[in-house]
Amino acid sequence: MSAQPEIDFEKMDGLVAGIVQDANTGEVLMLGFLNPTSYARTLETGYVTFWSRTRQKLWMKGESSGNRLRVLSAATDCDNDTLLFKVVVEGDGLVCHEGTVSCFTKPLAFTNALEVARG
User: Fold this and answer.
1) Of 44, 43, 34, nearest to 8 (Cα)?
2) For residue 6, what are the β-bridge partners?
3) Residue 95 burial class via C-beta count within 10 angstroms: exposed 0-12, middle 13-18, buried 19 and up
4) Which candidate among 31, 74, 109, 117 keeps its CA 20 to 30 Å from the CA of 4?
5) Dihedral sign of CA atoms 97, 95, 85, 42 in order
6) Pairing, β 16-22 against β 28-34
């Protein structure tokens, strides 16, 4: 078995991005940030725990709503500064605080997207 990669928390002042993806559907559910303590807590408990930048404290997603994120697998990117968690959502499955499955629900318009694709 290979050694665990060393996560690079130094690039973003002690934080790394944590992408959360539904293990069954592949849908990206949310993005949060982890510091070394929240990362260790995630490894220890098997549930994604973030560092809340606004509240300056550890935050287990779903601790009050019951929609906890149980980690099935995790990986880091090639630079070891971003984490990807494939999860099963417990509870009613609504991850976003706005009551949706995913936090990514607000489309952005790209007026030149077709022109760029055509070359």
Assistant:
1) 34
2) none
3) buried
4) 31
5) positive
6) antiparallel
For residues 65 and 90, give the distance between their C-alpha atoms in angstroms, rounded to a whole number. 10
CB of 71 closer than 8 Å to CB of 87: yes
Contact by Cβ (8 Å): 13, 36: no
Query: Can you give the pLDDT of all 119 residues of the chain as single tens digits?
Result: 568 899 999 999 999 999 999 999 999 999 999 999 999 999 999 999 999 999 999 999 888 888 999 999 999 999 999 999 999 999 999 999 899 999 999 998 877 766 655 65
Q: Are 85 and 69 in contact (CB under 8 A)?
A: yes
- In this structure, are residues 71 and 96 in contact, taking their beta carbons and an 8 Å threshold? no
Handedness of CA 38, 44, 45, 46 (dihedral sign): positive
Q: Return d(Cα 73, Cα 46) in angstroms, integer.
A: 9
Beta bridge mates, 17: 33, 82
Residue closest to 71 by CA, chosen among 90, 58, 95, 96: 90
